[in-house]
Model the fold of this input.
Amino acid sequence: MEYFIGAIGEQKASSFLVRLGYKIRETNYWKPYGEIDIIAEKDRVIHFIEVKSSKYYPGTAFMPEIRVNARKIRNLKKICETYLRERHAPSEQRWQIDIISVILDSDGTLREINHIENAVFEKQY
Done:
């Protein structure tokens, strides 16, 4: 069965967030310098969420979130700031960048999901 791992991972992450009480504001917010997979809100904090998905490979300890490198972090911060500016968010709006790691079995079913809150910075903005 052929499927697109990233799209399935993003769908699983969105469902996971909704079950935890997050409100999905937008998905796949795109600018020429990058994309934010999921923009969600909970407790008046905007969460910009990068979803990293991979298939499960027995005998490995690979975690998809390690693919968020320094360049990706710079672009994420820039696109978050653009989103807030475009939406005329108040200057006191709290926000953070989270990562959700999704590991799928070979048939596309969810094996593991890990939500790393405020993964990019030491504090909320």
